[in-house]
## 1
Amino acid sequence: MADSKVELKAPEGKPDDVERIKRESNYLRGSLKESMLERISAGISDDDNRLMKFHGSYLQDDRDLRLERLKQKLEPAYQFMLRVRLPGGISTPEQWLVMDDLATKYGNGTLKLTTRMTFQMHGILKWNMKNTMQGINNALMDTIAACGDVNRNVMCNPNPYQSEIHGEVYEWAKKLSDDLLPKTRAYHEIWLDEEQVAGTPQVDPNEHEAEPMYGALYLPRKFKIGVAIPPSNDVDIYSQDLGFIAVVENDKLVGFNVAIGGGLGMSHGDESTYPQLAKVIGFCKPEQIYDVAYQIITIQRDYGNRSVRKNARFKYTVDRLGLENVKAELENRLGWSLEETREFTFDNNGDRYGWVKGVKGKWHFTLFVEGGRIVDTENYKLMTALREIAGIHKGDFRLTANQNVIIANVSSQKKKHINDLIEKYGLIDSEKISGLRRSSMACVALPTCGLAMAEAERYLPTLIDKIDEIVDANGLRNEEITIRMTGCPNSCGRPSLGEIAFIGKAPGKYNMYLGAAHDGSRLNKMYRENIGEAEILRELGGLLSSYAKERENGEHFGDFVIRTGVVKATTDGTNFHS
Ligand code: SRM
Ligand code: SF4
């Protein structure tokens, strides 16, 4: 076991106010129960809203209506966003139908498939929250820890190509998600009417009895785990606080390489914040995965920054303490050492579309869902189509990390039936859209996200219509170039891992980034600041035309812009800004 070279310490400083809220919340209860019953406002207090996140939800307002409501002297159009915890993104057809029904009854009539493989609903009014939560619970799902300073929904490669390994890896991902949940009964009391046990402990921050792993203050910040099965890096393993990379030898899962310290959020103009990629520190056996996760989480609990939230993610803890020191501390806490890293290779971080045949004669269909939004429009009845498919489907749905959905485990007999529905509703044939669009991703942004500085999900499709003209003019229609857009630098659509990316700065203005690796192993670099559509198209016109003419055989766009000196390679998050 390596020795820790320095004494590990958490940064000193006055704790952020969120620490007070957690401390005073009595294990995430706060006054949420009362707030949700109060009928004078459709909103809740800021303190309760902070706690709501731990329950998978938070209060938003419809930003499209903000000005108008202000003029009319009305309170903002308050509504809640709700995120489901769906380990590995697997939903049964019955669960799909429940989500569809709840979104129609209580939400805004759409579902959002998120970049972390789960469902979000928007537009739920306060008075409908409890019914919605109970509906989700009755369908054997929950929203516990879907947001908040805890471990979030655990991602897992939904790989239909290696179905036999997928099943096993998925079970580990699910176990992590379940076993790392907070132990407080707050969620059950507030939303499911469970009686509060008499004498529920009031908070003593030094006492970890009610929350053995998290403690009463939970983590300094959100924490994310992903599990990848090479060669697919669709879960963007290097963006995770903690990543497990499955190692398969002779068709058997022998264990996982362990990667720590990734995360993508940052703030414009603040170089103390930066995206960072996780680094691989060794290998563990499958049955050791939980202990590794548990101890890594306790290291972040003990040494993460509780004073400055924007520097509180585990990536900053690792960079501050040093990778080797964190590894040594982990091994110390485990009482054993990680083995040498095993070899692995990734080849892309996107999805593969259409029908593929997996094991046991089962078929899987990956459907491109633009911006992850399941909605019926006049010309494209996606929500209805998937509802009908769920009505006859006997396999499962797998939500992907690229905001798409796989209609998975379809028997040969059922395949024709499902394919008839795919054709009846004219669901997007991935062959007929450009490789660029197939590889696109956009975060929610406006109108629901309170942090958005610019549009993303509502704008990227029309921007791609225009980029497609450049793509076609240069014979690049089938080139799978990853393109990602977010409304702000929090980076929910993982933009710093896009070969082309746009991060919102102001309405209609974006910073443009280039040069991430196609397999998700290198961050991109800022190329232009604060530009609008005309300039974006002008820049891409030149770049894509040179790429078409000058690229080397098999060279990806992200590599091309680096080789030809358009941008410098970002070799580590710490040089992202230079
Ligand atoms: Fe995110 C906050 C949406 C994936 C980094 N994210 C938010 C909030 C809750 C806004 C807020 O706090 O006020 C957004 C809700 C908008 C809305 O109206 O729904 C939001 N994040 C999303 C989703 C829905 C984007 C999507 O279009 O799919 C994704 C939900 C994932 C899930 O199912 O759990 C989503 N968020 C991500 C990712 C990507 C990932 O995890 O793979 C990131 C970057 C990776 C990372 O965490 O480093 C991400 N979200 C953030 C951050 C910045 C965190 C940081 O380290 O600085 C925030 C802001 C914050 O935490 O203060 C944020
Ligand atoms: Fe909102 Fe910013 Fe996340 Fe987009 S990246 S969903 S705008 S917080």
## 2
Amino acid sequence: MVKMDPARADSLTLSCPHGLTLQGVTAVVRYRIGESAQTLRLTEMNQPDMAPGLRAIWRCEPLGDGYRLWLELTNSGEVPVYLETADVLTGPAPDMGAPPANWRVYQNGWQSWSPAFARHLEGTTYADPGTPEYRAAHQPHWEPDYDGLVSSEWFTVLFAPPAPALLLGFVTAKDQLAEIRLRADGSELTARCHLDGVLLSPGATLQTEVLWVTAGPDPLRLLEAWAETAGREMGARLHPSPAASGSPLSPPLTEGRERGGGRGWGEGSPTGWCTWYYFYGENTADDILDNLRAIADYRLPLDLILIDDGYQTAIGDWFSINPDKFPEGMEPVAEAIRAAEHRLGIWTAPFGAAATSQLFAAHPDWMVRDEKGAPVIGWVHWGVPCYALDCTHPEVLAWLEETFRRMRREWGVTFFKIDFLFAAARPGRRYDPSATRAQALRRGVEAVRAGIGDDAFLLGCGAPLGPCIGLVDGMRIGTDVDPNWHPLFRYDLSAASTENALRNSITRAPFHNRLWLNDPDCLLVRQRGPDLDLVLNEMRTLTAVIALLGGLTLNSDNLALIRPGRLKYLWQALPPTGVSARPLDLFEHEMPRLLLLPVERDWGRWWVAGVINWEDHTVETTVRLSDLGLPAGRYHVFHYWRRRYLGITDDGVLLRRHQPHETAVLLFKPVSDRPDLLTTTFHVCQGAVEVADCCWDEAHGLLRIALEKAGRQFGEVWLTVPEPWGVVEVGVDGERHPWVSPAPGLLRLGLTLEDRAELTARFGRKR
Ligand code: 9PG
């Protein structure tokens, strides 16, 4: 309910669900007429308000358990108006029952690589390097009074337990960059749309983005509901996902197997191999062909071959192929990849033109310009300045569309990783003075989509998130993974490192299958050495987290040289389930430690938890069933990486030696009174992808398990055998098969699974 506050006629009170109220709120529009700065403050909803040259309506409608709010702005005068900002809601922060220092505030970074997590305002790990480069890449609304201000791009959730959580989130993002600003002392909470000084001509009208304000007891569910709503409002490109079409919040994984094959777009998360994180752009055509051969030899179920940065002579000159690396050009490599029935993927940074490029030399007028008319640098690419293309220029859009159409046609590319997208949204002057930074970016991505066609896969990277929804299929949601666990500069949370990449992939997990498919970046499984500094626990953490998150699963080792023994880790993450685990303690820990994947099949139900130790030392960790939200009952617990059965619990487990950077992958399976499948070691999700069926024939005491997984992989199957049952015999594909009993009531067998196998176990009642 919205009401006028009788004590203050100059503002409103917005009553949110669960007793939260926002008092003293208004909407504010800042604009210019000529050189004169103007402000219009609105204090009433759904009726027009006027100021010189501007007519505005503050719209409010119910949405779900809350409100949707936006502004409609019309130039009511005879001269141009230039719009700066529109605060769809501004006022003091609400009373959350605790001082702001004790709040958790989800702070979403601007683009793929920008840090995102639920900050604790006091004792935070947040760091702002404060360099011009950092601001250019991560802080699109930076201003000198940024100190003491928490800026979260696009949405936030405020939470101070035990009070309910408050969501302020824009659910549209096509036209303006938007941020939620919170003064750390609670004096101001503002939901602001950035209009970037664009021209509003006499008679013209525009709308701000739509803000959703709501509240609820569970901040993670609010975040999931927001992603769901934003994805729906913006027509997110979602690949058919049975889980996503079920219960809107926290769906259990029901049918991952059918869609997890990674065989084609539309069937879940892509799998593949990427050149970048071993070769870092130094790869030749032969290196790619060697890896193609290794993938075939090992029968690795990797679909896509992604040729990342390095094949081109300069950013912008996408058909000028480096002859030292690709002596015969791109065609023969593309041909070989297609002939081997792989998807061909290619990396570009489409909105940049290197200072050294032919593109810049030919079209200096295609760049975004600064106040002085100089071309604006989008970013510096490995030492080379790249200017930002003006994606409101019709010639630029035509060139983009044609460039991508040619890649599709001439090389047969069907997967496009488009990188450094934030360049298109750098501040500056553009051809179309009425286009915002967000609109410029979106027009650019639209041109790319038009060129590649509707059925090609488009992966955003280095991308401002919101404006890409509905155009991209996948999105990188964190920094680059890296051969190092910690970043070189610890104070930069956007710096490449496995730790930073994993943090964002976990904290942005709720986006998966709601806004796009999440890309957690590549999986590296090679041995520790000059090319990789991850210890075994760190590599297993990377494997486990990527597997539990169910998003894109791309390997980036040199498979032609890798020690074959290491491939067992890659196998255990393939194929992706397509469904994401939930970061249960997202609002409790800035580095969430607890991922939970619920799995449900016709033949059973289980939970896989990833319990992460981010500390640099060994800790003792307790995992309670109540922390996981599991129904009360008795559960078998299996410690996946250690291949150890931990017994039955109705309470929880204690990990006495939880090692540095180790992720304990724990299976919780309800105890059954008849023989049952406990787990398999073919996949981290332990049955979610490789067990096609499992049925119990009580009359004959027969358990039949159908295993299906592309390729050839050794693994174990574990069964539970409760009293009074005893095993009579075990068979694989009709042949008797040896087994052992690692503990009373347990049966384990090893087998090499080649595409499919049927396991039968016959039991009898002991007397
Ligand atoms: C290719 C790489 C890979 C990688 C992308 C992107 O200097 N920088 O700040 C910087 C940030 C990210 C980055 C490279 C440089 O990586 O995320 O997967 O494609 O480009 O150059």
